[in-house]
Amino acid sequence: MILVTPKTTEKAYAVSQQNVYVFDVPFTANRTEIADAVAKEYGVQVKSVKVLVSKGKAVRFSRGKNRYPGTTNRSDKKKAYVTLAEGSKIAVFEAVEEAKKDDTKATAKTAKIVAKDAKAVKTTTKARSAASVQKRGEK
Fold first, then answer.
1. Is the pLDDT confidence value at 139 over 60?
2. Which of 92, 112, 133, 137 is the most exposed place for a label (fewest CB within 10 A)?
3. What's the structural domain count of the chain?
4. Can you give the residue range of the structural domain that contains 114?
5. Is residue 30 located within the same domain as residue 78?
6. Same domain, yes or no, for 104 and 127?
């Protein structure tokens, strides 16, 4: 069995809305091995697997002060886009979705507090202006 690790990036989250999940996989793995590993590890039914290899970027580095710059390449990576069958789901982004729900609740609560504070400031301002009018009238 091979080790498949899900990618938790914004792009991976966007495609997960269409029931497609992104995994980092070893170079030696082929589509059937990836499908079997995902099915066993997450208990889901795999519909299809697309595999790609992203080439490592060329990177410059220094070999000391005033020396010739060196170049090297980052390691290549292999990714698999796994489409699941209807009704199957992997809980990779559950924490993100829960945080969104909590965030909307917190935003609504904050809006209520801000409105309440604005109302209190308004009434305080009215009371101050009324008090200043009374003082002017007494003089």
1. no
2. 137
3. 2
4. 93-139
5. yes
6. yes
